[in-house]
Amino acid sequence: MSINRKELEEIAALAQLNIPEHQIEQITASLNQVMQMIAHVNQADTSLVEPMAHPNDAWQIIRTDEVTDTTHKTDLLKLSSHADDDHYLVPKVIE
Predict the structure, then answer these.
(1) How many domains does the chain have?
(2) Residue 76 phi/psi, 5° resolution?
(3) Which of 12, 37, 84, 95 matches a 20 to 30 Å C-alpha distance to 69?
(4) pTM to 2 decimals?
(5) Per residue in 43-58, pLDDT tens?
(6) How far is it, in rounded angstroms, from Cα 25 to Cα 32?
(7) Minimal CA–CA distance to 23: which of 35, 8, 41, 2?
(8) Alpha-carbon distance 60 to 55, whole Å?
């Protein structure tokens, strides 16, 4: 599988990226190299590899949940430069 100019432009539009015209060919070639490497890795014979749930044998020690007093809301809101009485104010991210 390879990526052509049209597909790159569609991907860039979906990701809301503006790729300069002079870099389109270079990026297309780079992405095609990545796709070739992925195809090469996918050809590896893994039939003798035992499936594993986690690469390490270690398990994370998890503490028990404890109910605590969480009345720090106003103190934390004071630390923000953009907050009103009860909320953090953030820029609009959805168009």
Answers:
(1) 1
(2) -70, -40
(3) 84
(4) 0.51
(5) 999 999 888 777 777 7
(6) 11
(7) 8
(8) 13
